[in-house]
Amino acid sequence: MYPIKKVSELTGIPAVTIRAWERRYGLGPSERTEGGHRLYSENDVLDLKWLKKQTEEVGVNISQAVQLLAQRKQQAEKAVTSSSSRELQELDLKRMDTLYESLIALDSNKASEALELSFAVWPIETVLQNVLPQLLHRIGDEWEKGNISVAQEHFASNWIMHRISHLLRVFPVDKTYPRALALCPPGEHHQVGLLLFTLFLRRKGMDVVYLGPDTPENGLDKVITDLNIGLVCISITRPDLQRAVRELISQLTTEHPGLKFVIGGQGMLNAPESLQNWNIGHSSALWDQWFDLEWMR
């Protein structure tokens, strides 16, 4: 929950305007404190950002934008209430299949159409929290089974990353958390797990600098210093990269004694004891547990 001052910073809308919209159009916060202070949820922030986009980029006035927002929410509610949970699940699976097949066929236009259809039906948070992570998991699983090629995996991962990089801006950054650096070491070209963990951290409010696959060690020290990095996230799919990761951590720890690390990916299976302290696991439940222990105050 966010106070109005923070909401103003996140949305770029002056607090006086937010209060005026509340009086005129009923766009009040989800909650108030016992003292009457406004507290806005993430959905409230997303609604305000959407209204701002409609007025500034689309060109509609605020009253029209409010009406469009109400219609959008009503349509989403009807889509949920008019179908059984089984029908909704089947619809999601069909949409996911279309999106997956488009990416495997290297058809970015058809994939974009399928994703836009998801946005038309579901809120942006649902797409970010369910659709794209499930898609990434599926792509990673199919690559590990040998059902898709390296080229297909790279194309699909890069397409999803491009989409995520634009969408992640809806999640506010909590500046009380350290800034994270996400990378795959030299020789590691598969970034699906790293993408998923980056999305997890951004949803938690952590700012993440994403370097991606096959990141050279040269220059990392300067990046960590210049960007004030507090956490380095590493993903590997090959056990033979464990030694290189251990050496990289040893080097960076010497140069930055307070730096924290996490390592994930299939390459960490049966990792030696010297790496287990940083092993993040591969499930969202383990990630949540780690985050709560490490960062919740």
Describe the fold and architecture:
- With 297 residues, this protein is α/β, with parallel strands linked by helices.
- It has 3 domains: 4-81, Orthogonal Bundle (Multidrug-efflux Transporter Regulator, Chain: A, Domain 2); 85-168, Orthogonal Bundle (Methyltransferase, Methionine Synthase (B12-binding Domains), Chain A, domain 1), CATH 1.10.1240; 171-295, Cobalamin-binding domain (Rossmann fold, 3-Layer(aba) Sandwich), CATH 3.40.50.
- Helix content is 60%, strand content 9%.
- The chain is built from 13 helices and 6 strands.
- Strands 4-3-5-6 form a 4-stranded parallel β-sheet, with helices on both faces.
- The chain is globular.
- Mean pLDDT is 82; it is low at 80-88.
Which terms would index this structure?
3 domains; Multidrug-efflux Transporter Regulator, Chain: A, Domain 2; 13 helices; Methyltransferase, Methionine Synthase (B12-binding Domains), Chain A, domain 1; alpha/beta; Rossmann fold; 297 residues; globular
